[in-house]
Each structure stands twice: as C-alpha cells, then as structure tokens.
Design brief:
Blueprint (H helix, E strand, L loop, with lengths): L1 H15 L24 H9 L9 H4 L6 E2 L5 H4 L14 H10 L2 H4 L4 H26 L14 H4 L6 H18 L11 H21 L8 H18 L15 H7 L10 E5 L11 H6 L7 E2 L1 H6 L19 H4 L5 H4 L48 E5 H15 L4 H6 L1 H7 L7 H6 L3 H6 L8 H14 L6 H8 L14 E2 L3 E3 L9 E4 L10 E4 L9 E2 L22 H6 L12
Parallel strand pairs: 7-8
Antiparallel strand pairs: 1-3, 2-4, 5-9, 6-7
Subcellular location: Cell outer membrane
Family: Belongs to the SusD family.
Protein name: Starch-binding associating with outer membrane
C-alpha cells in the first residue's frame, strides 16, 4: 500500500509540476499509470490530494494589490505598465491535464462503489471549475477542454478560444455536479459540498456582475448567474452548518480580528469553510507577519479612501462629518465602525501576548494606516516564520455574495439584509443596514467612487459594496476582482494617499506623549527618534496627505486592462489563438 501511494503521488507530481506546461506533456511510463492503481478508495484520495496545490497560498491570500492597500513597490497591473509576456504561468494548463486524466480514467469511471466514485469525480470537477474560473478572470474567452490532449491531437492542440458563455456554462455544470456528489461532512482542510456551494456563490456573482457591467463584451444571461449565486448562498445559509464567529474569548477578544488572529482555524470553524493549513513543527510556514511588520518588505498601508469608507459607530457616514478630509489621525478614528480598529493600529492597540501599546509606525507602513489583520505572537515576525492558518473560504463572504446578488437582481428585501449584512454588523455592534433608508439617500461619496451604478436601488448596492470592501480587505485579492467585474478600473489609477498632516511639525499620532512623526521643511533635522518625512511628500502646498509611491504615474486603460495579454510563445505555437483587445496581434 505504501508503494502504491508513493506511485500515485509521484504520478500526480510529475503531471502537475512538469517543466513543460504545454498540452504536449507526457505521462510517466506504464508502471506508474493510474490504470494499474486506481483500485481502492485510498488510491482515489491519494491522487486527488495534489489538487489542493491549485488553491491560493501565502501572499496570494493576504497580499492584496489594489486601491485598498498601498505597498512600498507596486505591481505592473497597479501602475498600468503590464507588457505582453513571452511566457506566463497564468496561461499554464498542467493542472487541468491532471484533473481531466482522472475524470476520463476507465478505472475511476468503473469504480464499484458509486458513492465513493461520485465524491471524487465531484472533487475533480470542483477543481476544474476553480481552474477555469481563474483562466476566465484573467483572459476572458479560453479553450475549453474536458479530455486529455495527446501529442497527436492536432485539432485540439490548435484549437481557438471558446466563447466565455460556453466555458462558464461548463463551469456551472461542474459546480452543480460537485454540489450534488461531494461529501457533506464539514472539514477545514478538505473540499466538501459546503465548499462547492461557497465557490459557486463566488463564481456566479463574479460572472453575473461582469456580464451586467461589461455590455461591450456582449455576453448575455447576467441574471441567470446572479440567480445561481443567490441560490447557492441561500442553500448554504439554510443548511445551518456555519455562522458568524462572535466570541470574545479569542487571542485579542475582538471577534472580527480573531477570525484571523487564531493560530488554528479550528477555533473559528463555525465561520471558516476551508483553510490553508500551516504548521511550524512540520516546517509549513509563510510570511504574513514579516510582511506586516518589516521595514524592508511590503510596508503595506490602508489607503485613505478605504479608511474614509468606514462608517461612524452610530451608522452615520464619516464622510458627512464637517471637515472629515482634514481630520488628523487620532480624531478621524474616534467612534468608527469597530472593524477599523480591528484592521489597523489605533490608540491603545497591543500585540498578542504583550501589554505594551503600539503606535502606527511609518517605518513599517506606507500610509500610516498600519494593518494588523492576521497578526499573532511577535515571535513569528521574522522572515518566513508565520505559521497561522490562512482562510480560503469563510461564511462572511457567502453572506456578502448573497446580499449583492439579490441587490443586483432587484429582489433584495430587509429580511435578506438581516440574514446577511446585518449578521456581520451584529458581530461588531454596528447598527443594521436598513433597505428603505439606503435607497432613499444614496451616499454621495460612494456614488462618486462607483460611477456605474444607476439602478433604482442604487443606495443599497453601494452600501453592500462598502460592506464588502471593509469586511474582506486583504483577503484573496477580492478587491481587484470586484473592480474588474464592476467595470470600475478607474479606481486603480487614483493617486494613493495616506494620513493627513496640516503642516510642518511634530505629531503624537495616538496622544501617548511620544512623538511619532516629524514633518520637516528644507534640510532634514537631526533625528529625535520619530519618523521623519519631508514636507514635499505631502499632497498640498505646505500641508496635505502623505503621498506613497511619489512619482509613480498610475494609469488604467479601459480598452485593455480588464484582461491580461496572452503570452507570445503560445500565440506563436497556436495560430488559431487571438490576442486580447488592445494588446496587439
């Protein structure tokens, strides 16, 4: 049995990690063929275990790059300087070949235990749906393959891109099969029926809103996908399997922050549907705490517009406060949605297992709004020493998906809000979102941000977008996907801004009696221990917002930047492939 498992793992590794990522990859010799080993449930489990490497890990989970988060260096898609690559791993296909090999294998299809067989077929189709969703997000139309491609399959090797509608209908079929046949036992590390429902709500919401807000691509049936998203989320909600974590007994005593502060997701398994496991004893580590605390790596900071989006603690708008845009840090964070102080360093914040208050430190953050989401014990702050689990699917996302899908369909009710958005607000003691009030008085700040929303229920759509931006910040780069599907790419090009300072001087950000920042004019003065920032790094004439990445002229091309370019090498190998609009031939 041990030898058989080794063979299966080797086979999977060779298929999914081949140095040649084209359809011409070859399988190992016959002695490693699944035809000889797919004879037990353990064989099916062992082979399909390697699918999980397709899921996000490490910085792909926490390292958001959008208008929400400002880093010390910006990726090309944020600057607007992407180039057509020679090769690109995003166009890789080995993961699909691995899945299709299993789905078309005779021993698998003839496996005697129907329930076991269908579970692993469902698992494979879950991952095929996940794989193709990634491809469609990046490229739009892509070739659809549901079989293994061999070296002599010239017709398939030279296949053109299939229409997005065909691909996404096929993805939906895969998801429905997975939901019908996957085990319904809750598991933090294995895909279940509940994971498939969560993925379906995510994918169908993306697809429905993309079709709605991108009429230029002429893809119909937006409402079909929005309905599928709402129904998938509704089924998961009605199951009663998950709930919003609201305990105050966690590492920080703050329920929202503790969803991410616990070392193990087992402590928040009421909300976490699937997690990426890490374990220091096994050498399975990542880098989130070094990313959040280092002076030399990342230096992420929340952007000013995101901070402005957090409501007051009484539910009123911060952006309705007179002079909100020139409030200094201590004043602007008073009486806000508690999720703000559970996302960034605010006065009185202390690290886990420490009683020493921490002030915002510009040595570690570009904007002054220093993230604390995911932080655990300071002993894990060194490079590649973080070992806390990282959530991949959580119930909160499903609730937001449900509310947004219903709002975009125009069928949202107050009962729907109470079942979804208001569950998230209850966790942190925020007033409920009221449907009638939101639609009667849309927020001008959000209207200016999201220019494409024009429905009669505009107000509540905008409020749900606010909720999504706040609740899911720094998770799986959701924000980039949201801006792309809503056709709000212009937000990527806005200049990044940080804290406001009224002019030169010394500033005690948290009013603990210690100077944290010194804004100087002219020659840099001798250091007094505070972070020193030249006046020229502020946005105005002698005052203004901190300007991170000063000198970077961000752009977003509405004609091409919603998709990525196909690699030159693949266009050369297959003349039937066409380049995405705006990226050349």
């Amino acid at each position: 049995m041990k030898n058989k498992n080794t063979i299966l793992l080797l086979l999977a590794a060779l298929i999914i990690s081949s140095c040649n990522d084209s359809f011409l990859e070859r399988y190992p010799t016959d002695e490693l063929s699944p035809q000889t080993v797919f004879s037990s449930e353990n064989d099916l489990k062992t082979y399909t275990n390697s699918y999980y490497s397709l899921l996000q890990e490490g910085s792909e989970i926490y390292g958001e790059s959008t208008d929400n988060i400002v880093k010390s260096s910006l990726p090309r898609e944020i600057q607007g300087t992407r180039l057509v690559p020679t090769t690109d791993s995003k166009w890789g296909w080995s993961g699909l070949r691995h899945i299709n090999f299993f789905l078309t294998n005779e021993n698998v299809l003839n496996f005697p235990n129907e329930e076991v067989k269908n579970h692993y077929l469902g698992l494979s189709r879950f991952f095929r749906a996940f794989f193709y969703f990634e491809k469609v997000r990046y490229y739009g139309d892509v070739p659809w393959y549901n079989q293994v491609i061999e070296s002599n399959d010239d017709e398939l090797l030279q296949k053109a891109r299939d229409p997005r509608s065909l691909v996404m209908d096929s993805v939906l079929t895969d998801l429905n099969f997975a939901i019908a046949h996957l085990d319904d036992t809750k598991s933090l590390e294995r895909v279940s029926k509940w994971t498939a429902l969560a993925l379906k709500s995510r994918i169908c919401l993306y697809e429905g809103t993309f079709r709605k807000y991108h009429p230029e691509f002429n893809v119909a049936d937006a409402d079909k996908f929005l309905t599928e998203a709402a129904e998938a989320a509704q089924e998961l909600i009605n199951s009663g399997q998950y709930s919003i974590y609201n305990k105050t007994s966690g590492p920080t005593g703050k329920p929202y922050l503790d969803v991410f502060s616990h070392l193990k997701s087992d402590d928040v398994m009421d909300e976490i549907i699937l997690t990426r496991r890490y374990d220091a004893d096994l050498g399975l580590k990542h880098n989130v705490q070094f990313y959040l605390t280092s002076r030399t790596y990342g230096k992420p900071g929340l952007e000013k517009n995101l901070v402005n989006s957090y409501l007051m603690s009484d539910g009123s708008r911060f952006t309705d406060v007179a002079g909100y845009d020139t409030l200094q840090f201590f004043d602007e964070i008073q009486n806000r949605d508690p999720r703000l102080s559970q996302t960034i360093v605010t006065p009185g914040y202390t690290r886990i297992n420490s009683s020493q208050p921490v002030s915002p430190n510009f040595e570690n953050t570009t904007t002054g709004y220093q993230p604390i989401k995911y932080l655990n014990d300071p002993s894990m702050d060194l490079s590649s020493q973080s070992a806390q689990d990282l959530p991949l699917f959580r119930y909160a996302e499903v609730l937001v998906n449900f509310a947004e899908a219903k709002a975009e369909l125009g069928t949202l009710t107050q009962a729907d809000l109470d079942l979804s958005i208001n569950q998230l607000r209850d966790r942190v003691g925020m007033p409920h979102l009221v449907l009638v009030d939101a639609n009667a008085n849309p927020d001008p700040f959000l209207e200016n941000m999201y220019k494409n929303v024009s429905a009669t229920n505009k107000g509540v759509i905008l409020e749900i977008r606010r909720e999504r931006q706040i609740e899911l910040v720094m998770e799986l780069n959701f924000r980039w996907d949201d801006l792309m599907r809503w056709k709000e790419g212009h937000l990527v090009a806005l200049p990044f801004q940080g804290m406001y300072f009224p002019g030169p001087g010394k500033y005690d950000l948290d009013r603990d009696g210690k100077i944290d920042v010194e804004i100087y004019m002219g020659e840099k003065p001798p250091s007094t221990g505070a972070f020193q920032l030249p006046l020229s790094d502020l946005s105005g004439n002698g005052k203004g917002y901190v300007l991170p990445n000063k000198g970077v002229n961000k752009v977003f091309d509405e004609e091409k930047d919603y998709f990525w370019p196909l690699p030159i090498e693949d266009l050369t190998l297959n003349p039937n492939l066409t380049q995405n609009p705006g990226w050349g031939k």
